[in-house]
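PROTEIN DESIGN WORKSHEET
SECTION A - STRUCTURE
LENGTH: 145
TOKENS:
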């Protein structure tokens, strides 16, 4: 697979060798190391810049959050730097184990609990549709002879 890099894509400084970059990724976290190795295996030399991007995300967002994002990428089978970046940028950071109660969900910013059985999102944010039914019964006393 011969991929030629454009002149503007070459870094200004002499880059680290591939093994050093992969070693740094593995030291940062096991999920990051696994993802970066997969990126390199699939993309070769072009993948090095993406691996460096994953390492810079760890500096920007923290190792734990980046490790969670890499775990999500691996779980979904998406071995891409862009996925990890978007996962981190779109917060809030949600646990991969999911929610354990309605109380956890209601504490998220922007969440509003609607007490109805069937709620459907409307055409714009903040608009919802739900059905409401009432039953009215009239009881009459009819004399029987």
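SECTION B - SEQUENCE
RESIDUE ASSIGNMENT:
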């Amino acid at each position: 697979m011969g991929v030629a890099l454009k002149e503007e894509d070459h870094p200004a400084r002499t880059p680290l060798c591939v093994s050093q970059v992969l070693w740094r990724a593995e030291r940062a976290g096991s999920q990051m190391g696994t993802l970066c190795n997969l990126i390199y295996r699939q993309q070769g030399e072009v993948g090095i810049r993406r691996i460096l991007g994953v390492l810079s995300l760890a500096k920007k967002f923290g190792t734990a959050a980046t490790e969670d994002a890499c775990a999500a990428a691996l779980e979904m089978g998406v071995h891409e730097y862009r996925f990890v970046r978007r996962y981190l940028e779109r917060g809030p950071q949600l646990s991969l184990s999911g929610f354990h109660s309605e109380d956890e969900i209601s504490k998220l910013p922007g969440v509003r609990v609607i007490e109805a059985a069937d709620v459907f999102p409307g055409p714009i944010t903040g608009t919802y549709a739900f059905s409401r039914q009432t039953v009215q019964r009239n009881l009459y006393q009819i004399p029987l002879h």
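SECTION C - NOTES
The first strand starts at residue 119 and ends at 121.
The CA atoms of residues 90 and 127 lie 22 Å apart.
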